[in-house]
Design goal:
Oligomer: single chain
Bound molecules: D-xylitol-5-phosphate, zinc ion
Distance between the termini: 11 Å
Mean pLDDT: 98
CATH architecture: Alpha-Beta Barrel
CATH class: Alpha Beta
Number of strands: 8
Shape: globular
Strand content: 15-25%
Helix content: 25-40%
Order of helices and strands: EHEHEHEHEEHEHEHH
CATH superfamily: Aldolase class I
Number of helices: 8
């Protein structure tokens, strides 16, 4: 099954409820929440209060992407704030295995992510223990960047590895995704598609969401 995970980083924060609602009503199953700490990436975004507020209003899956240093310090709080899937970066911690265990001990799904410059084999030993792998298709930190086509090989590698080892993790792609490149990404093996700019741009969130869902259901 394919899922659309609109990244609220590109939403209108003055009208966050309206924008998320337009996504959910038009078929988005997930909402992607980018958390940045100004250390792991050179930008600061949102944290617990936004997740808690959205949780009061929405039942959909909250796909929380942590771009923070030493995420092990905050997993419990992201879990209790209303996250469903908690994804962290392998580059952000010395103890990726421990982070996965903490996420699972909170009864949440664990995702692991790699920056564009990180070899995908760096996460190999964790693949039998995660629920999702997030392949960054731009440098983490900012929305609105250009898709890096070379990252498609990582998606293909993951799909192949999953099949060879009888595993079942989801493969998520994040960054620079548009109507034009979605099919290529799906064909490579990703089934969770993050899109920020392409969903929320031009105040056409409802129509954009519908168009993505059509591509995902093809
Ligand atoms: C970048 C974030 C992405 C980003 C996606 O660090 O992880 O989720 O907001 O935005 P677009 O779709 O605009 O590249
Ligand atoms: Zn993200």
């Amino acid at each position: 099954m394919n899922y659309l995970s609109p990244s609220i980083l590109a939403a209108d924060f003055l009208n966050l409820e309206r924008d998320v609602s337009a996504c959910v009503k038009n078929g988005a199953q997930y909402i992607h929440i980018d958390v940045m700490d100004g250390l792991f990436v050179p930008n600061i975004s949102v944290g617990f209060p936004i997740i808690k507020s959205l949780r009061q209003r929405f039942d959909c899956v909250f796909d929380v992407h942590l771009m923070i240093s030493r995420p092990e310090r905050y997993i419990e709080r992201f879990a209790s704030s209303g996250s469903d899937i908690i994804t962290f970066h392998v580059e952000s911690t010395d103890n990726a295995g421990d982070v996965i265990d903490i996420i699972h001990s909170c009864s949440k799904k664990a995702g692991i992510s790699v920056k564009p410059g990180t070899d995908i084999t760096k996460i190999e030993k964790h693949l039998n223990n995660v629920d999702m792998v997030l392949v960054m298709t731009v440098e983490p930190g900012f929305g609105g960047q250009k898709f890096m086509p070379d990252m498609v090989d990582k998606i293909k590698w993951l799909k192949n590895y999953r099949q060879q080892h009888g595993l079942a993790f989801d493969i998520e792609a994040d960054g620079g995704i548009t109507f034009e490149n979605t099919e290529l990404i799906l064909n490579a093996g990703a089934n969770v598609i993050v899109a920020g700019t392409a969903v929320f741009e031009k105040g056409m969130t409802a129509d954009n969401t519908k168009s993505f869902i059509k591509i995902l259901n093809r």
